[in-house]
Fold this protein.
Amino acid sequence: MDLSPAELRLLIAVESTGSFTAAGREVGLSQSAVSHAVRESERRVGAVLFERGRKGARPTPAGERALVHARQILRQLELLRSEARGAAAGSITGPVRIAAFRTAAAHLLPPVLDRLTTRFPGLRPQVLVVPELGRGTAGEVADGRADLAIATLDDNAELPGLRHGELFTEPYLLVHPAGHANPRTLPLLDWPENCSSYTRHWWATQDWLPPRRLDVADDSVVLSMVAQGIGIAILPKLTLLTPPPGVEIVDLGPDRPTRRLVHVTTAAARHSLAVRELIRELRAPASIS
């Protein structure tokens, strides 16, 4: 027999709280009732979904896959209700979940979401800021936690099971303290998310870059440190849309490194009216100028 939406929500509650007892408090059931319900779900699925121990409950590999589908199924049920109500009212309503790395969330999304919610006042964007490391923002879509991600993607990279579309390619620029007599004597500032394979290749061929390098938390910290005269940096254009006083920005010429930005969805999510309108706004010229 199929699992009910309530049973799927219970599995997600166990995952998010880390224990049957805490999950029970969240959904209003006793610990024994939660334990029984999870065992029954495991029997129907045909696999053990959680490891039980003194430290609580953790998803098994089978549980991790089941939870991905649970989140996606519940989201589709939510979309069924919100899009049906929106169609009846001639609008788009309900939440739309977006995963974005910091600079996209700070500089790209605000005007996009302003235009979108002006057109559809009943729409409720939810933005999750995720470092573009490892599986990054696309991983949030793959795991059913986001409807759409704004991600960076190397030219030869693949996203199994997901759909992506081009947004734009942005250049990297040199930024250094304004008025510094010889900025190339300063250390090069970098951050963990700056991991494009093309960027790394470009750096390796630039013998003028300073050999000393300082790694800091993120690109906003890099920019702040440049403004304080601590170093120089190679930063993407999005980071430099609103530069602080005290920095100078220099174009790196026709061979400069670039970063490719894409939107990422699942096959099911891309049919959502909210996601389609969000993509339309992301692709609008005003979004990428």
Q: What stands out?
A: The two ends are 52 Å apart (CA to CA).
